[in-house]
């Protein structure tokens, strides 16, 4: 059966409370019954001893049996629900209650025991007869038989006392249960309200409403952590949705532009407006290449992010590879009078050399593209623990802080119009991120507007081979 968290908390709390209250009440009553029964037994024994001592004192006072004095003690015993019969040393009966007195007393004791059994929950005691020897010093002067309803015979006051105790315990148990119910409801509400709020919040996220306000934080550490995590997830999903929308728009734009150019040129040649010269065919060919390059880059990222493409590991010097790649950009840097320098120390790593070369190529291409004339680009390689660290720094235009987390997404361009003019497609850094992630590494950027940017790549010195 499915239950809400409130009902589950209330039920669990009340069940636990009921068990504790029940065990406490049960042990209390058991302990009380045990001690009170011992008290009643000792009191009964003292009563019997008292009557025995009084009868022996009667004989000791007179030196013989005074039947009248014995009768007084015997009738006092009847009032205490004890039937006495006194015999002399020869076994001759000295005193006994009349048959009517004994019968009435027996009936009263039986009736009282029935009432006691009802009130005390099944307490039972049988009529017993015991014989006690009467002595005067060391001399045996007779015997005494005592008929009682056992040593655990409760008086009406005893029964009333125990009944009051039980009733009071029951009242305390009910009050404790009511208090437990109050606290159970209070605690369940305290815990369930924020959980329900988070549930509604996640429901809105599931509907695609990422702008929903996150629930207010509580004073419960775990729930506050959950709220912050779900809120962070909502913001990330909102950002991803924005990127997907922009991605669709950018892909459409990137493909539409060359296709429009290609279609216009072909229509002009088919209609005879243009002659199909080598120059115009070359323009069409370049546009087809642009589309192919775009699709190829997308495929390259998909392959890197999937588990289908396996890396070809080899051991090489990262600094030497950086110098080799930098040499390929010497001419491009010279055109803008950019200083291109490689520094650091030799660092041997195990990685896919072609893929790491692609990372360096993309980072340097970006740096040269956005570094103004007479600027500088520095590549630094060093080792930190079990990581190889590659830094590519420039003094270019910099990257806005809002864009720094997004530039590694596909097709994301900080200035789309300018990137389009410079031939960019917003895929270079996405490829870098995919390659480095495949190598179990990280890539991050630190930049200030107008002060350049520093891209830092960290990858393990050794890779786990599949």
From TrEMBL:
Q: Where are its TM segments located?
A: 6-27, 169-188
Q: Where is the HAMP domain?
A: 189-242
* Keyword Transmembrane helix (UniProt): yes
Question: Pfam family example for this protein?
Answer: HisKA
- Please indicate which superkingdom the organism of origin belongs to: Bacteria
Any one cellular-component term (Gene Ontology): plasma membrane
| Gene3D superfamilies hit by this protein | 1.10.287.130, 6.10.340.10, Histidine kinase-like ATPase, C-terminal domain
Write out the entry's keywords from A to Z.
Coiled coil, Kinase, Membrane, Phosphoprotein, Transferase, Transmembrane, Transmembrane helix, Two-component regulatory system
InterPro entries reported for this sequence: BphY/WalK/GraS-like, HAMP_dom, HATPase_C_sf, HATPase_dom, His_kinase_dom, HisK_dim/P_dom, HisK_dim/P_sf, Sig_transdc_His_kin-like_C
Q: Can you state which reaction this protein catalyses?
A: ATP + protein L-histidine = ADP + protein N-phospho-L-histidine
Q: What is its EC number?
A: 2.7.13.3
Q: Which GO terms describe its molecular function?
A: phosphoprotein phosphatase activity; phosphorelay sensor kinase activity
What are the Histidine kinase domain coordinates in residue numbering? 250-463
Q: Where in the cell is it found?
A: Membrane
Which residues does UniProt call coiled coil?
Answer: 223-250
Q: Name one GO biological process term.
A: cellular response to phosphate starvation
Protein name per Swiss-Prot or TrEMBL: histidine kinase
What is the source species?
Answer: Trichococcus pasteurii
């Amino acid at each position: 059966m499915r239950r809400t968290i409130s009902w589950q908390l209330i039920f669990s709390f009340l069940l636990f409370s009921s068990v504790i209250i029940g065990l406490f009440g049960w042990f209390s009553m058991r302990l009380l019954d045990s001690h009170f029964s011992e008290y009643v037994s000792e009191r009964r024994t003292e009563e019997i001893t008292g009557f025995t001592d009084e009868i022996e004192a009667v004989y000791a006072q007179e030196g013989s049996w005074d039947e009248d004095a014995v009768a007084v003690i015997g009738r006092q015993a009847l009032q205490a629900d004890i039937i006495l019969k006194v015999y002399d040393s020869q076994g001759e009966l000295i005193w006994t209650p009349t048959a009517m007195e004994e019968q009435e007393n027996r009936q009263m004791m039986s009736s009282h025991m029935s009432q006691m059994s009802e009130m005390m929950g099944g307490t039972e005691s049988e009529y017993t007869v015991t014989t006690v020897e009467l002595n005067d010093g060391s001399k045996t002067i007779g015997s005494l038989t005592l008929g009682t309803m056992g040593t655990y015979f409760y008086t009406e006051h005893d029964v009333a006392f125990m009944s009051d105790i039980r009733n009071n315990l029951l009242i305390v148990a009910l009050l404790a249960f009511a208090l437990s119910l109050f606290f159970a409801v209070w605690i369940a509400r305290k815990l369930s309200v924020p959980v329900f709020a988070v549930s509604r919040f996640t429901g809105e996220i599931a509907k695609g409403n990422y702008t929903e306000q996150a629930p207010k934080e509580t004073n419960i550490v775990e729930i506050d952590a959950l709220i912050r995590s779900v809120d962070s997830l909502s913001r990330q999903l909102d950002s991803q949705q924005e990127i997907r929308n922009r991605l669709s728009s950018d892909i459409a734009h990137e493909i539409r532009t060359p296709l429009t150019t290609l279609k216009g040129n072909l229509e002009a040649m088919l209609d005879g407006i243009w002659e199909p010269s080598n120059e115009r065919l070359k323009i069409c060919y370049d546009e087809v290449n642009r589309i192919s390059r775009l699709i190829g880059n997308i495929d390259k990222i998909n392959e890197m992010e999937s588990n289908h493409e396996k890396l070809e590991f080899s051991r090489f010097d990262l600094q030497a590879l950086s110098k080799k790649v930098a040499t390929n950009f010497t001419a491009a840097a010279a055109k803008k009078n950019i200083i291109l320098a490689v520094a650091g120390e030799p660092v041997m790593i195990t990685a896919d050399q072609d893929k790491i070369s692609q990372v360096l190529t993309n980072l340097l291409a970006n740096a040269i593209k956005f570094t103004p004339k007479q600027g500088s680009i520095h590549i630094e390689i060093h080792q930190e623990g079990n990581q190889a660290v590659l830094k590519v720094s420039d003094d270019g235009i910099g990257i806005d802080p809002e864009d720094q987390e997004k530039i590694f997404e596909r097709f994301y361009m900080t200035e789309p119009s300018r990137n389009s003019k410079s031939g960019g497609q917003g895929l270079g850094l996405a490829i870098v991120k995919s390659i480095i992630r495949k190598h179990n590494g990280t890539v991050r950027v630190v930049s200030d507007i107008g002060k350049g940017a520093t891209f830092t790549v960290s990858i393990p010195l050794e890779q786990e081979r599949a």
